[in-house]
Amino acid sequence: MQNEQNNDKRTPLRGKGWTPRAEKKCIRTDNATGGRGRVVMRPVLPENKNLKPFALELRKRMTLSEVLLWKRLNKKQLLGLDFCRQKQIGQYIIDFFCLKKMLAIEVDGDSHNEKVEYDAERDRYLESLGIKTLRFYDLDVKLHQDSVVYDIEKFIKSLA
Predict the structure, then answer these.
(1) Contact 99, 22 (CB under 8 A)
(2) pTM metric for this prediction
(3) Please, are residues 94 and 129 in contact by the beta-carbon 8 Å criterion?
(4) CB 3.0 to 4.6 Å from 14: which of 4, 18, 74, 144, for a disulfide?
């Protein structure tokens, strides 16, 4: 019976109302010389493989605001942190995500005015996984890009 309970913790869905938590997993990173590398603890987040084609399509069809912000987050330009775009977490696709800081960044356009409850549900789910969410309006990213990036930097520094 004890073994069954341990196995249940690893299954993606255990029943109604169950919210998976991000588990930490040992990952060995190999160094360039082919040595043993180092062991790093990284969270393993729930993922819906069925969303992958949709996420890939979203990467191709990014909004202007998403493109502008991605140019500032890409290639570790922001505090040396690695961000990915259109990350699948559970049943949601996050605009930008930093695994090291467990930070989701969302750019909300006009369509999000009707999705207040959906966004609140998504935020609660991400919070249950230990992920913090920052939201910015589409227009703010377009018109005040430097301020948005400054706000992100300020928030990340407050986490440390």
Answers:
(1) no
(2) 0.74
(3) no
(4) 18
**Burial letters 33-53, b for 16+ CB under 10 A, else e:** eeeeeeeeeeeebbeeeebee
- Name the burial class of residue 70, with classes exposed (0-12), middle (13-18) and buried (19+) by CB atoms within 10 angstroms of its CB: middle
Kindly state the tokens that stand for 116.
């207040």
Give CA–CA dist 153/147, Å, rounded. Answer: 10
User: How does pLDDT run across 90-130, given as a tens digit for each residue?
Assistant: 999 999 999 999 999 999 987 666 788 899 999 999 999 99
**Is-contact 31 39, C-beta < 8 A?**
no
Q: What amino acid occupies position 111?
A: S
The residue type found at 13 is L
Q: Domains in the chain, please, with CATH?
A: 46-159 (3.40.960.10)
pLDDT of 45-74, one tens digit each?
A: 888 889 999 999 998 999 999 999 999 999
Beta-bridge partners for 87:
94
- 3-class secondary-structure state, position 148: helix
Q: How many CB atoms lie within 10 A of CB 159?
A: 9
Dist. CA 160–CA 154, nearest whole Å: 11
Residue 62 CA from chain centroid, whole number? 16
